[in-house]
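Is alpha-D-glucopyranose placement plausible here? Inputs below.
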Amino acid sequence: MNVLFVSAEVAPYSKAGGLADVAGSLPQALAPYVNAIQVLTPLYGQIDLVKHNIQKTSIQGKISLGKELIPYSLYQTLDADGITRIGFVRCDQFFARDGIYTESDGEGFADNNLRYFFFQLVVLDLISNGNMKTDILHCNDHHTGLLPAMVKAMKLNIKTIFTIHNFLYHGHFSLQEVALLPEPLGSLLTKTQWDNYSALLEGIDHSDVVTTVSPGYALELLAGINVDTSSHVRIQAAESKFSGIVNGIDTEYWSPALDHYIPFSFSADEFEGKRKDKEELLLKTGLPKDAEAPVIGSISRLVENKGFPMIVELLDEFVALGARFIFLGSGSPEISKQLKDAANKHPRHIAFEDGFNEPLAHLIEAGCDMFLMPSRFEPCGLNQLYSLRYGTIPIVHHTGGLGDTVEAWSSTSGTGFLFEPYETKELRAAMQLALKVYHSRDDWKTLMKRAMAKDFSWDQSAKQYLRLYNS
Ligand code: GLC
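Reply from A.M.:
I modeled the complex. Tokens:
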């Protein structure tokens, strides 16, 4: 069985969100069980060829997009374990830019649809020319959502699996844009109620198997929660091929014992390192040293659906109770300003770093006591999994993958604090309970140990994907 795994982002080469982490680690976990697994992704301008030992191959071709004939070439490297081959599609006209999807001001590139049409046509070209031996084509999110229909249009003898990492992003495109694609693809596509097309829904319609990144989120999509009615009809039509497989994590890269980004390692038997990491974190973020104060972390895109309106509303109150907050993330200028203002107002209690900072992300996971993740919805979520591994107790909304991976605290069981319905007063109650348990030191220690004992390695989930591949 030869698997080709396609994704618009792959860590550590390019990353805008959790999709990159999955694309960077799931293929490695699958590698021992298949004949070969290759990953394909665009070669963005920010990817350092020398650092990652990425080399040009002799494979190249030309893709017709509308009236244009656009050349590409293929670059390759091996992943960190030297098992999985990562292929990079080079086409400077589309990908030699600093951003993955957006300009530096956060605005999406005007030609995003064309960029991923092109990428998908290259994937198809590589398969049909025999340059990528493929039995199973594993597509991820809307950037690769047209591939299952393309495979059908070209009557290729391969099977397709489409994984939804987030239903919020559809990759809508217009009738005029469809005209750029080779026939007979256009005739296979279905218009949405807005008179355009959705690459995400096309992936659902045409793939042999659809998965999403947790069983809980699969149930929500099938029930039509946070889904418009016309999309819901198409999800329901796919019900018999639809399932949820929870994401795993790279347990070596996110490990309190092995993490080279944190100054002090620790384990469930020895929390001294965590205490020192907390001191280091407070020092680095400019907050006063205080071993007793509960420190609450957040690493997130700054968008409404990650729960920031609620968090901002509660900050004053919890600062008054002695809590410290450390925020890391970028996104909406408005939320960024709110967090900046809060940090200015409470310089001894709130720290905010606007941006993406991998070392600080690891130190937050290691050094905080709690991790705040009140997403309105969450397909899987990875940061709560990283948090559990570092004994940093998650406070989450009971939704999607958060509900599947965090168990509600009681004095004898559970790994975190969950709330529902989605209201500020419920989040407040969960945070209050977390603080109460925190101050009962023995209970908290037991809770940390339970959290750290959970296994979120890829193995179980990789086997579920494998079962689908085999079927
Ligand atoms: C998206 C989802 C997140 C998921 C990740 C990886 O970023 O929002 O919940 O964990 O994809 O699948």
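Short version: The mean pLDDT is 96.
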